[in-house]
Design brief:
Elements: H1 2-10, H2 18-29, E1 37-44, E2 47-54, E3 64-69, E4 84-86, E5 89-91, H3 95-112, E6 121-126, H4 137-144, E7 150-153, E8 163-168, E9 170-179, E10 183-184, H5 194-209, E11 220-227, E12 235-236, E13 239-248, H6 256-266, E14 271-278, E15 281-282, H7 288-301, E16 306-310, E17 323-325, E18 330-331, E19 339-341, H8 342-358
Parallel strand pairs: 3-6, 3-7, 7-17, 8-16
Antiparallel strand pairs: 1-2, 2-6, 4-5, 5-19, 8-15, 9-13, 9-14, 10-12, 11-13, 18-19
Amino acid sequence: MQELLAKLVSFKTTEDNPEEVKKGFAYIASFFDAEKYDIQRFEKNEKYSLLISFKGKDALRPQILLNGHFDVVPAESEDQYQVRIEGNKAYGRGTLDMKGMASVLIEVMLELGKQENPPDVALLLNADEEVGGSNGARYMVQEVGIKPEFVVCPDAPYEGEFKIVLKEKGIAWVDLEAKGKVAHGAYPWLGENALEKLIKAVGKIKEWVGPMDPGAWKTTVNFSVLEAPNKTPNKVPGEAKGLLDIRFTEQMAKTPEELLEKIKGLVPEISVTLREKGNLIFVEEQHPKVQAFKQIAQEVLGQRVNFTFEHGATDMRYFGVPGVLFGAKGHGMHAEGEWVSLQSLEGNKKILLRFLQEG
């Protein structure tokens, strides 16, 4: 696994490097015998996806889909694309997020392929998760038509104890636009300041959402962009634009569209539109496969495993079916000192193999 991980990390699969993604996917595909596996490649807007399934199975309707991503954020230095092993830790760009677990998924598919009648499992690797997943997972679901019964997505790394994530917040990137009236800066009463109007509206939205709590499952708002055409201080701005990154829970809205309508009603004085959206993930704890996964994980790891939630988002949100999120142990995602625990990769491989054969 170390050798495979080192090779995967050496591919600089950043958003602006589609050729490296193609080379990496060609390398991965080379492991799979064409007599045993079906290998399909997909592309949209120079973003690539790789789908691997077993002969005789419907790749677009698997009982269980293993889903991960092959892309990484750019590294600060070239040496981060070379894996460095120190004891139980493998350092390098993407080792934790998530080429370590991509290595596990590849090995799991190869192990299952040794069986005379492997389970109905497919592996989908996408290469644009770090930039939103629109041309990868979303494209595969909405345009190619992949529809698994259950998804296993090992894209939830951890630092403390192994966890199973069943909830992820929905995403709504909301564009705001306020109109005012231009005037000379010495006579502000003759104009209407669009910036102030927009900022006041954002304040109403943030007050409606309530204070942030890092340990709570609740909606958050990040006021991330503010723009005005003014090039001089002595002018009342007549228009202003802003962008909110809202991560919402089911208590606030069930869909991004429902959330947008509520915001429109709250701040009718400005224009509100939806730029980007992502669905909630909310999986019932009592789902049979969820319970089976938890039991197997506890037996393999020899410890209690808890269900939890994540503030962020993964490609799993696009599939619209039940599933589990988990990951490898490590630290430093997207940072210079990123590392993954090799022991946790081996443990996750055992969990997956048992689950896919018994669960």
